[in-house]
TrEMBL record, chain A:
The gene is coxB. GO terms for molecular function: copper ion binding; cytochrome-c oxidase activity; heme binding; oxidoreductase activity. Residues 27-122 form the Cytochrome oxidase subunit II transmembrane region profile domain. This is Cytochrome c oxidase subunit 2. It is an enzyme of class 7 (translocase). Its main location: membrane.
UniProtKB/TrEMBL annotation, chain B:
Gene3D superfamilies: Ctag/Cox11. The keyword Transmembrane applies. It is found in: Cell inner membrane. InterPro entries: CtaG/Cox11_dom_sf, Cyt_c_oxidase_assmbl_CtaG. Keywords: Copper, Membrane, Signal-anchor, Transmembrane, Transmembrane helix. One of its GO terms (cellular component) is plasma membrane. The chain crosses the membrane at residues 7-29. Its main location: membrane. One of its GO terms (molecular function) is copper ion binding. Exerts its effect at some terminal stage of cytochrome c oxidase synthesis, probably by being involved in the insertion of the copper B into subunit I. It comes from SAR86 cluster bacterium. It is a single-pass type II membrane protein. SUPFAM superfamilies: Ctag/Cox11. This is Cytochrome c oxidase assembly protein CtaG.
TrEMBL record, chain C:
The keyword Magnesium does not apply. It comes from the Bacteria. Residues 24-528 form the Cytochrome oxidase subunit I profile domain. The chain crosses the membrane at residues 36-55, 75-96, 117-135, 161-187, 199-226, 246-270, 282-306, 318-340, 352-375, 387-412, 424-445, 465-488. One of its GO terms (biological process) is respiratory electron transport chain. It comes from SAR86 cluster bacterium. Keywords: Cell membrane, Copper, Electron transport, Heme, Iron, Membrane, Metal-binding, Oxidoreductase, Respiratory chain, Translocase, Transmembrane, Transmembrane helix, Transport. It catalyses: 4 Fe(II)-[cytochrome c] + O2 + 8 H(+)(in) = 4 Fe(III)-[cytochrome c] + 2 H2O + 4 H(+)(out). Pathway: Energy metabolism; oxidative phosphorylation. One of its GO terms (cellular component) is respiratory chain complex IV. The lineage of its organism: Bacteria, Pseudomonadati, Pseudomonadota, Gammaproteobacteria, SAR86 cluster. It is a multi-pass membrane protein. Its EC number is 7.1.1.9. Cytochrome c oxidase is the component of the respiratory chain that catalyzes the reduction of oxygen to water. Subunits 1-3 form the functional core of the enzyme complex. CO I is the catalytic subunit of the enzyme. Electrons originating in cytochrome c are transferred via the copper A center of subunit 2 and heme A of subunit 1 to the bimetallic center formed by heme A3 and copper B. This is Cytochrome c oxidase subunit 1.
Amino acid sequence: MTNVRNLICTFKTQFIVIAFALSSQLSAEWDALNMTKGATEISREVYDLHMLIFWICVAIGVLVFGVMFYSMYAYTKKKNPVAATFHESTKVEIAWTIIPFLILIAMAVPASKTLQTMYNDEAGDINIQVVGYQWKWQYRYLEDDVNFFANLTTDLDEIYNKVPKGENYLQEVDEMVVIPVGKKVRFLITANDVIHSWWVPAFAIKQDAIPGFINTAWTIVEEPGLYRGKCTELCGKNHGFMPIVVKAVEQDEYDSWIAEKQAAAIAMAELTEKDWTAEELVARGEALYTTNCVACHQVNGQGITGIFPALAGSGIVMNDKARNIEILMEGVQGAAMNSFSYLSEVEMASVITYTRQSWGNAQNGDGEIVAPKDIVEYKKNKI
Amino acid sequence: MGSRKKTILKLSGAVAAMYLFSFLLVPLYDVFCDITGLNGKVTQTTNAESSISIEGREIGLQFISHNNAGMPWTFKPSKEVTKIKTGTMYEATFYAKNTTNEMMVGRAVNSVAPTNAKDYIKKIECFCFAEGIELMPGEEILLPIKMVVDNELPSNIKNIVLSYTIFDSNLEKKIIMDHDGDHAGS
Amino acid sequence: MSAVIENHHNEHDHHGPAKGLKRWFYTTNHKDIGTLYLWFSFAMFLIGGAMAMIIRAELFQPGMQIVEPEFYNQMITLHGLIMIFGGVMPAFVGLANWLVPMMIGAPDMALPRMNNLSFWILPFAFFVLLSSLFMEGGAPNFGWTFYAPLSTTYAPPSTTFFIFSVHIMGASSIMGSINVIVTIMNMRAPGMGLMKMPLFVWSWLITAYLLIAVMPVLAGAVTMMLMDIHFGTSFFNAAGGGDPVLFQHIFWFFGHPEVYIMILPAFGIVSHIIETFSRKQLFGYSSMVWAMLSIAILSFVVWAHHMFTVGMPLAAELFFMWSTMLIAVPTGVKVFNWIATMFKGSITFETPMLFACAFVVLFTLGGFSGLMLAITPADFQYHDTYFVVAHFHYVLVPGAIFSIMAAVYYWIPKWTGNMYDERLGRLHFWLSFIGVNVTFFPQHFIGLAGMPRRVPDYALQFADWNMVSTAGAFLFGFSQVFFLFIVIKTVMGGKQATDQVWEGARGLEWTVDSPAPYHTFSIPPKVS
C-alpha cells in the first residue's frame, strides 16, 4: 500500500512540476500573444483596463453562452418535443437592459480617468518633434538642436528572402530616438506628406501624424531599454517598412549622446570644406544609396521599367552634373522622386558621386564627381 | 397610388437634403473646430484688447517651422525660442524666401502644443490667416505675428510651442498635371 | 406575430417569365431581380475572396513572396470595397427583393422598373472599379476608407474611375432603398400593421432609411474628392486651407451607419431562423424592433470612435467613447432575446439553424472586441492593428455573411422548390465554421502583440499565427466554392420541398407554393 501511495505521491509531485513548468511556459507564451504591459505607468494602466474589460467580457460570455449551450443541449426536439409558449416578459427585458448599462458605467469610469491623464500634455522636460515622411521618420529635439532621420536598415535581400532574416527583421533603424529615463518626454507629432501614425506599444502612444497639425503625446519611461514601434496608418507603398526604435538611457548617457550629436554636426560642416577624391565619396555614397535609393532605383541602378527610371546609362547621371544636383535637391514634382535636400552636403555629394561613378556611368559619361562644395554652391546660387 | 408618390417624393427629398448636408458639414466642421479646438488651429481674434491687462507671469515660447513635401522655400522663425509675459502684446516674425525661379504662392497652417493652451492665445495678426503668400522669384519677406497670451493661462503651462507648416498652394495641381503626361524622372 | 392566412391560393392565370437572356435584362419581377442580385453578390464574393487569398498568401510567411507592396495595397483596397459594396450589400438587397413582397403579401416591389435599373447599373460599377487594375498607375491603393491626402494629392490616376464607380454603387443603393421603403409603407396586406411585420421586413425598413441618410453623404465625400483632384478646390487639402481630418469625419459619418447597414438585415434573418427551428415564438418581438431602432439612431453619434488617434480634444474622445459603449445595450438585448427564444424550445439543427447559432456566438465575440475597442485608452493600443481586423471580420464574416448563407439555406427550398442536400449543407457549415475561426481568431493575438493592419510584411514574432491564419483562410475560401456547388446542385434538382418547408416556420412566404410561382399575392391575403 505504502508503495502505491509513494508512487502516487511521486507522480503527483512530478505532475505538479510538469504542470507548473508547462503553465509558466504557457503564460510566457500568452504574454507574447497579449497586449504588452509596456514600460510606463500609463501603459500599465492601459494594460489593466484591457484586462479588466477582457475578463468582464469573458464573464458575460460564459454566462450568456452557458445558457445558450444549455438550451441547445437540453431543449432539442428529442428531449423536449413540445416547446414552451412564453414569448415576452417585461421584467426580464428591463433587467437585461439595466444590468449591462451598469456594467458599462463600471468600465467607463476608470477608462475616462486614464484618458484624462494621457491628455495632460501641458509640459515636457524634453520636447521632440516627430515628422512622418513617405517612408521614414524625422526627429527634431527642440531644446538641443539635434535633428536626424530614421530609416529602415533591414536589407532588401532579407525582405526578398535571398538571405536569412535577422532577429530584428523590419524593426531596425539607422538612428534611434534616444531619450532619458525618468523625464517627461513630449512628442509633437506631425507629417510631411500624407497621414502617418506614430505608435510605440511600450509607451501606449499612438498618435496620427497629420500634415500641418501637431498632435502631442508624452511618456515617462522607467527602465533603460530598446522600445520598438511602427507606423500604423496606411501611407502608401512602404507603409510596412518605416519602424520606430526608441532607446531609453540614463540621464548622463543621454547628455553625452546629445553632445556627441552636436559635435558630429560640427564635424560634418568641417568635412564640407575638405577636398574630396572620387573614391572617398563613392565609399560614403554606397551606404547612402542603399538606404535612400535602392527601393526604387534598385541595386544595379536599372530602376523598374515604366515606374522608376534607370540611373545606369542615364544621360543626366552621366553628363549633366547641374541637373543631377537639382533633381536630388528639389525632387521631381509629380513623380515618386522626392527632394533629398535634408541630406547633409557631404551625404548629398557622396550619393550623387556614387551614382555617377557606378554601373559604367563614369566610363560612358563625363565621369565628373560632385563635391560637397558643389552642393554648398548650389544652395548659395539658388536665387 | 397618391400616397406612394408622396413617399417617393419625400424620400427623394431626403436624399437631396442629405447630399447637401454633406457639403454643409464643411462649414459646420469649421464652426465645430472653433468651439472645441478640434484641429488645434488658432483663429483670428477681434477682442484681443480684453486680454491685454496687467503684466502677468513669464512663459516660454517656441516657434517651429516645417516645409511640407514639395515646398522649396526657405521658411523659418526669425527667433526660435523666447520668453514672453502673459497679458502683454508680443510681436514676432518669420522669414520666408522663394528660392525658385518662378512665382509661387505658399500657405501656412498653424498648430499649438499643448492643446489646451489654444484658447488662451489671442492672435491679432498672423500670416497664417492669409489665404496665400505670394512671392516672386528670389523674393524675401518678413511675415508678422501679433499676439497676446491671456493671463488666465493654466498655471502648469510654462511653455507653448507654436508650429507653422508652409505648403505649396499648387502642389496638388502640379501632381495632377503630371498624371496626364508621362512620369518624369531623373 | 401570428399571421392566419385566409386566402392563400393564388390564381395562376398570369403570364410566366420571358424566355432566354431577355428575361434577365428586361425583367421587372421582384423574384428575378432578387435572383440576379444574389448571383451577382456571389460572383463578387468569389472575386473579393480571391483577393483575400492573395493577401493571405503574401502574409503566409514574413518577407515579400508573391506580390509587390504596391499591388498588395491595391488588393486590400479592392477586397474591402468589393466585399462591402459588391458582396454583402447586394446580397441583402437580393434577399429583400425576394422576401419583402412575399412576407408582406404584396404582388411585387413598388417600383419594378427602377428595381431593374438599380440592379443593372451595379455590374457596370464593378466593371469600372475592376478595370482600374489594368490602368496606368494601377488600381486605387489607399484602403477602402480612402483617407485624404493619400486618396487625393497622392492618388493614382485611376481614382477618378473609383469615384465614378462609388457614385454608381451609391445610386443603386439609394434606388434600392427607396423601393424597399415605398413597398413596405404602401403595399402591406390588409391587417398587417407595422408592429405585425416580420422582423426581416422591419430590419430592412430601418436599413433602407439608414441608406437614404448616409449614401448621399458618401456621394458628397467622393464629389469633394473629385473636385479637389480636378477642379482645384481644397476641401481636404491643407495647402488650400482645407483639412484632411474633415474627410475622416465625413467618411465615418457615412461609414458607421454603413456598418449597421451590413448587420441589421442579418438580425432580421437570424430572428426568423431561430424562431423556426426552436419551434417557439420569438421572444420579445417589440423589444427587437426597438433595439434595432436605437442601434440605428445611435449609429449617427458614434462615428469618431474610428478616429480616436486623430488628435481630438478630450471632451470629444469621452463623448464618443461613452456613446459607443451605449450601443452594447440594445445589441445585448437582441442576443438575450435570441437565447430566450431557444430556451425551452424544441430545437433541431438543420443547416440554417447551425449558421444562425454560429452567428449568435461569433457575432457576440465580435461585439465583445467591439466593446474593448470602444475604450479609448485601450483603443490607442488596438487602433489600426490586426485586433481591429479580427474584430470587424468577426462581425462581417460569421456575422453578415453567415446570416446570408443561413438565409440561402432557409429559403432556397421556397425559391427553387428543391430541398438542398442536408448532409452537404452541414459539411459546408462545419468547414466554414472551422475556417472562419482558424482565420480570424489568431488575428486577435497578432494584433495585441503589435502587428499593424494593411502591411504586406511583418516582423518575425508574428510569423506563427499568420501562418495559421492563412491556412484557415484557404480552408474557408475553398469551402465557399463547395457552397457554390451545393447551390447549383439544389437549383438543378433535389427532393421536392413542401409548401411549408420547415415545421416551425411562420409567415406569409410559407403559404405559397414551392417553388414560389412567378407572381404571388396578386390578390392580397388577409392578415389577422
